[in-house]
C-alpha cells in the first residue's frame, strides 16, 4: 500500500476538496486525484462520493479514515526513530512561541540555549497562541511553546504539558469594572474587550470574545497596551502582568471567570524526537513558571 496514496486520501478528507488539499500541499491537483483513484483501485472500494466538484467520504471512506491517519502518524514515528538512532539531529530548529512569558525571559533563555547547543541554529518566531498547533501541523515550525487553548485530540500533534499558567481577566484600577464587588455577565458584555486574534481557521471556542464590543490582537503585549490606554478589559497571563497587579496599576475583575488556569505546552509533530535543546528548554520554562 503506497503511503503517498494514503496521504492524498487523508488530506482531501481533511480539506473537503482536491483543489484545497493540492493548495495546502503545494502540489498538482491531477496528481492528487490520480493517487486517490489508485488507492480506490487497490482496495477495490469507492472512498468518495463524487457530485460535480463536490467530494464526500463514502461509508467505506469514513470507516478507514482514522486508520489511514494513524498509519501516516506511525510512518512518521518510524522515520523519526531511525533518524534519532543515527544521531541525525537537525542543524536548524524552527520554534514558534507566544508572548505569555515576558520577552526578556525568552531572550535570556534563547541566548543560553544557543550557547549550550552551538552546533544548532535556533530560529524563534512570535505567534498567536491560537496558531501554535496549526504551525506545527502544517510543518511551518518544528516546535511551538505557549498557552494551549485547542484541547483537540489530534493524532498528528503531541502536546507536552510544561506547567499550569494562570489567566486573569483584568482592567485598569480606575476602570468602573474594578470598583464592582461582583461583576455580572451583562456588565462584561457591555464593556469594551481586547481579545486574542489568530489566523487558524479551526473553530476555537476558548478564544471567542465575551463582550459585544471587542478588538483583537495576535499578542498579549498588544492586549495589555490597549487595556492600559483605551479603558478596555481582557484576559492576560499572570507572568506578563504580575508587577502591574502588585503596584495596583491593574485589577483582577471579580467575575466567575476572573481567574482560570490553562496548560502551557510544547507542541510537536507526533513521532518527532525532541532535540535535546527542547528538553532543556522545557525544564527551564517549567522552573520559571513554578514561581507563579
UniProtKB/TrEMBL annotation:
Q: Name one GO molecular function term.
A: transcription cis-regulatory region binding
Q: Does the keyword DNA-binding apply?
A: yes
Q: Which UniProt keywords apply?
A: DNA-binding, Transcription, Transcription regulation
Q: What InterPro entries is this protein classified in? A: LysR_HTH_N, LysR_subst-bd, WH-like_DNA-bd_sf, WH_DNA-bd_sf
Could you tell me the superkingdom of the organism this chain comes from?
Bacteria
Instruction: Give every HTH lysR-type domain span.
Output: 1-58
The family database entries (Pfam families) matched by this protein are listed as:
HTH_1 (PF00126), LysR_substrate (PF03466)
Q: Which family does the entry's similarity section mention? A: Belongs to the LysR transcriptional regulatory family.
Q: What is this protein called?
A: LysR family transcriptional regulator
Organism field: Vibrio superstes NBRC 103154
Amino acid at each position: 500500500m503506497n503511503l503517498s496514496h494514503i496521504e492524498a486520501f487523508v488530506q482531501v478528507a481533511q480539506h473537503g476538496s482536491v483543489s484545497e488539499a493540492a493548495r495546502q500541499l503545494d502540489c498538482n491537483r491531477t496528481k492528487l486525484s490520480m493517487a486517490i483513484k489508485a488507492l480506490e483501485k487497490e482496495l477495490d472500494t469507492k472512498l468518495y462520493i463524487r457530485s460535480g466538484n463536490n467530494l464526500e467520504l463514502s461509508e467505506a471512506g469514513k470507516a478507514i479514515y482514522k486508520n489511514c491517519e494513524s498509519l501516516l502518524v506511525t510512518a512518521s514515528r518510524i522515520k523519526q526513530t531511525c533518524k534519532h538512532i543515527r544521531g541525525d539531529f537537525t542543524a536548524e530548529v524552527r520554534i514558534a512561541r507566544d508572548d505569555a512569558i515576558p520577552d526578556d525571559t525568552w531572550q535570556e533563555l534563547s541566548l543560553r540555549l544557543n550557547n549550550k547547543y552551538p552546533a544548532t541554529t535556533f530560529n524563534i518566531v512570535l505567534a498567536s497562541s491560537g496558531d501554535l498547533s496549526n504551525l506545527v501541523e502544517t510543518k511551518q515550525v518544528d516546535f511551538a511553546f505557549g498557552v494551549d487553548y485547542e484541547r483537540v485530540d489530534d493524532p498528528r500533534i503531541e502536546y507536552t504539558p510544561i506547567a499550569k499558567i494562570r489567566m486573569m481577566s483584568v482592567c485598569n484600577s480606575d476602570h468602573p469594572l474594578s470598583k464592582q464587588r461582583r461583576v455580572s455577565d451583562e456588565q462584561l458584555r457591555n464593556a469594551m474587550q481586547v481579545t486574542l486574534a489568530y489566523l487558524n481557521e479551526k473553530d476555537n471556542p476558548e478564544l471567542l470574545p465575551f463582550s459585544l464590543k471587542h478588538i483583537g490582537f495576535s499578542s498579549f503585549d498588544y492586549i495589555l497596551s490597549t487595556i492600559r490606554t483605551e479603558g478596555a478589559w481582557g484576559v492576560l497571563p499572570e507572568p506578563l502582568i504580575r508587577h502591574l497587579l502588585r503596584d495596583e496599576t491593574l485589577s483582577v475583575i471579580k467575575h466567575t471567570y476572573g481567574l482560570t488556569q490553562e496548560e502551557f505546552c510544547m507542541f510537536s509533530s507526533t513521532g518527532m524526537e525532541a532535540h535535546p535543546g527542547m528538553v532543556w528548554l522545557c525544564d527551564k520554562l517549567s522552573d520559571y513558571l513554578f514561581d507563579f
